[in-house]
Design brief:
The chain is an alpha/beta fold and 433 residues long. The protein is built from 17 helices and twelve strands.
């Protein structure tokens, strides 16, 4: 890693036309085009680059790219060693610009752009060390991990010293846990069977296919007409038998409606109800959990570590769903993993989209090896779309993520894909405006 200088940043607006097949559709986001603000960090070392992205749904990606263009000036001209020596200080440069932070702070478009840049730096770091990101994180000394985390605003719930004690206590047995992952992989669930825009016939066929592939966990999008939701839930339940079924309302309901609708769907035995109301309504989630008796999951739209802290303090969630890009990159995800471990809440990351599966596998493996030391009630979301565009795509076997083996954060996209789906200049978008 010696003398590696970041010499430039290339930024792209990538969009894939997934809406044309209802891929990714839910009760709120009915026509998503899976997209990404994509960052390539160039260095003074031939062939060494860092790749980062933040996931979006189409329109608005250009706003993330412009924010990323502004933030990238904090990386260009710096040495990698200077950044990684005090990773939290670098993160605070991005989130603490005295004027730019007014547009956040630590939320929305600005935080999405922050994640893309920080993820690219972590990818570069792991590539420079010649290891996958999960292995880089798992091998870090406790103090180095703590130096990557901003404990400001969360120290009332998790002081730095307590986080260090947790990490040291969970170190025992790491090699045995790693051998388990090498043998079986990390448990996953599939969302690809139950998109909102799919017909009953397509859902039934996809359930049959997933069962044949060894899946044990399934998710269904809900939030439509009550009778339609119940019919589809009964269909999936009949298909999968006693296997786990999760439901996702994608923020569709008000609190009282969420309570009513969750109770009505309880006959299909949901393992959790996801995003039943506004992602910002901490007390609303707590009430829905209390009055339905159904496990509540949320987090993919949780703005930052502070909101996760409050969700956990309020006893509002049973499942913590980190997002590798909604939060401010790897640094803030480590903070939330530590918070969830402190409160004893399992982390089941949000994935799918563009590159989210590639990303969160690393975070979950690190969580198991160094933070939670548990696989109980833990699964990673999996969506079987767009992986062919990555040079190091996720690998699934019998409903489990296999350990990534190549150096980096698995975010490099083939140049041909960049040329095809760069918006609006790419060949696909010029031919299909």
């Amino acid at each position: 890693m010696h003398n590696i200088q970041i010499t430039g940043a290339r930024l792209l607006d990538l969009r894939f036309p997934t809406s044309r097949e209802s891929i990714g559709s839910d009760a709120v986001n009915k026509d998503p085009d899976y997209s990404a603000a994509y960052c390539i960090l160039d260095t003074n070392q031939a062939g060494l680059h860092g790749y980062g992205l933040t996931f979006t749904l189409g329109r608005g990606t250009e706003l993330c790219v412009e924010a990323l263009r502004y933030l990238s000036r904090f990386a260009v001209g710096r040495s990698l060693e200077e950044i990684t020596a005090d990773f939290n200080a670098f993160s605070n440069l991005l989130t603490g610009d005295t004027q730019f932070r007014w547009l956040g702070p630590e939320k929305g478009v600005i935080h999405l752009a922050t994640a893309a840049l920080l993820n690219a730096v972590w990818d570069l770091y792991a590539r420079a060390e010649g290891v996958p990101l999960w292995q880089l994180l798992a091998g870090m000394p406790v103090e180095q991990l703590l130096n990557a985390v901003d404990f400001r605003y969360i120290s009332d719930a998790l002081p730095r010293e307590e986080a260090g004690e947790l990490l040291r206590a969970r170190a025992a047995g790491m090699e045995q846990r790693l051998e388990r992952l090498r043998a079986t992989g990390y448990p996953a669930y599939t969302t690809s069977v139950g998109w909102f825009g799919f017909s009953d016939e397509k859902i039934a066929a996809l359930c049959d296919q997933a069962l044949a592939e060894g899946w044990e966990y399934f998710k269904l999008k809900v939030g439509g007409e009550p009778a339609s939701d119940l019919r589809r839930a009964r269909l999936v339940r009949q298909k999968i038998g006693g296997r786990k079924l999760m439901m996702d309302a994608n923020q569709k309901w008000d609190v009282c409606e969420a309570i009513e609708r969750t109770r009505a769907l309880a006959e299909a035995d949901p393992w959790w109800m996801e995003e039943p109301t506004s992602p910002d309504d901490i007390l609303g989630h707590a009430r829905i959990r209390r009055e339905t008796g159904v496990r509540i999951a949320t987090g993919e739209h949780c703005q930052n570590r502070v909101m996760f802290k409050q969700l956990l303090q309020a006893g509002a969630i049973d499942v913590c769903q980190i997002d590798s890009c909604r939060l401010g990159g790897v640094n803030e995800n480590i903070a939330v993993l530590l918070l969830a471990a402190k409160f004893g809440v399992p982390v089941c990351p949000h994935a799918g989209g563009v590159g989210l599966c590639e990303y969160v596998q690393h975070l979950s493996v690190f969580d198991y090896l160094r933070v939670s030391a548990s696989l109980d009630d833990r699964v990673i979301e999996y969506v079987g779309h767009l992986h062919e565009h990555f040079t190091d795509p996720v690998r699934i076997r019998n409903g489990h993520y296999l350990l990534p083996e190549k150096p980096g954060y698995s975010a490099e996209i083939y140049p041909e894909t960049l040329a095809t789906y760069n918006y609006p200049q790419g060949t696909y978008w010029r031919l299909n405006p």
